[in-house]
Amino acid sequence: MRQTLCMTLLLSGALVLSACEGSKQANVTRAIDAVNAVDQKNVAELMLASGNPDEAVSYFAGQVESDPDNISNQRGLARSLVRAGRLAEAIPTWRKVAQHPDATQDDKVMLAEAHIRANDWDSAETVLNSVPPTHETFDRYRLEAMIADGKKDWKKADHFYETAAGLTTRPSGVFNNWGFSKLTRGAPREAEQLFTEALQHDPHLFTAKTNMALARAAQGNYSLPLVRMSQQERAMLLHTMAIAAIRKGDVNVGRTLLQEAIDTHPQHFDEAVRAQRALEGDLG
């Protein structure tokens, strides 16, 4: 009886040990799979953020080939194709993503952006019109603003720019685009205010500095804006204002600004020199 009990206890112990070992192995396998998944996600994010666009395309193309139904891989490929400027491939890839069973409204918005990058504004508008109005995101309104701008529907454009700016913590690009829109409409004073807002959010945004110089020149104000700038940027902005002045007929002002640009640049400013020579040639 005692021997039978001992055997039973031994067998039970063996089964428990076996179960524990199996459980440990399963936990180890799950942990390895989790680490691999995290590593793969990190690699994907790295490729999208800072990798060479063509290398990213190759990486995600390989991922799609090995797991064609994974929408994350398809999105990565679509984004990489856009970054690489391969829009003829990016658009059908984004379209495939948008038709995936796990697709979101954001995927449609990204498809619309790809159409805009390809200068296919009608298709972009059609895609955005298929997105429910309840889908209120920064990217959606940013694109809506650009489309309204292109159609010269200024009331809608202003509304969408303002809405988009309120939906992001980094609105500098929106304010810059909105300001450029105002500049093309012949409202340089309003444009300058928007460029100022852009630079308050991102003091390094050189396109906003250039646009502000153009807005000031359009108002006959040829003094540089009081914003942070390097000597090279200062020279480039002086050159920009000089060209704007000459085009307005303020030739003497333009000549003076060109000379300032040449004197300001830490190295020889070839563009300003060429413009100056062309100006003197025209006057000679």
List keywords for this structure.
284 residues, 14 helices, Serine Threonine Protein Phosphatase 5, Tetratricopeptide repeat, 77% helix
Structure characterization notes:
It is a single chain. With 284 residues, the chain is mainly alpha-helical. The protein folds into three domains: 45-121, Serine Threonine Protein Phosphatase 5, Tetratricopeptide repeat (Alpha Horseshoe), CATH 1.25.40; 136-228, Tetratricopeptide repeat domain (Serine Threonine Protein Phosphatase 5, Tetratricopeptide repeat), CATH 1.25.40; 230-283. Helix content is 77%, strand content 0%. The protein has 14 helices and no strands. The protein has helices spanning 2-49, 53-66, 71-83, 87-98, 105-117, 121-129, 138-150, 154-165, 172-184, 188-201, 206-218, 231-248, 251-264, 270-283. Helix 2 (53-66) runs antiparallel to helix 3. The longest helix is centred in the N-terminal third of the chain and has 48 residues, at 2-49. The radius of gyration is 30 Å and the shape is elongated. Residues 4-20 and 26-39 have low confidence and may be disordered.
Secondary structure: elements and pairs:
Layout: H1 2-49, H2 53-66, H3 71-83, H4 87-98, H5 105-117, H6 121-129, H7 138-150, H8 154-165, H9 172-184, H10 188-201, H11 206-218, H12 231-248, H13 251-264, H14 270-283
CATH topology of the largest domain: Serine Threonine Protein Phosphatase 5, Tetratricopeptide repeat
For the record, the CATH architecture of the largest domain stands as: Alpha Horseshoe
Number of helices: 14
**How large is the share of residues in beta strands?**
under 5%
Q: Which CATH C-level class of the largest domain is it?
A: Mainly Alpha
- How would you characterize the largest beta sheet? none
User: Percentage of helical residues?
Assistant: over 70%
Q: Provide the gyration radius in Å.
A: 30 Å
Low-confidence stretches: 4-20, 26-39
For CATH, the homologous superfamily of the largest domain is named as: Tetratricopeptide repeat domain
Whole-number total of structural domains: 3
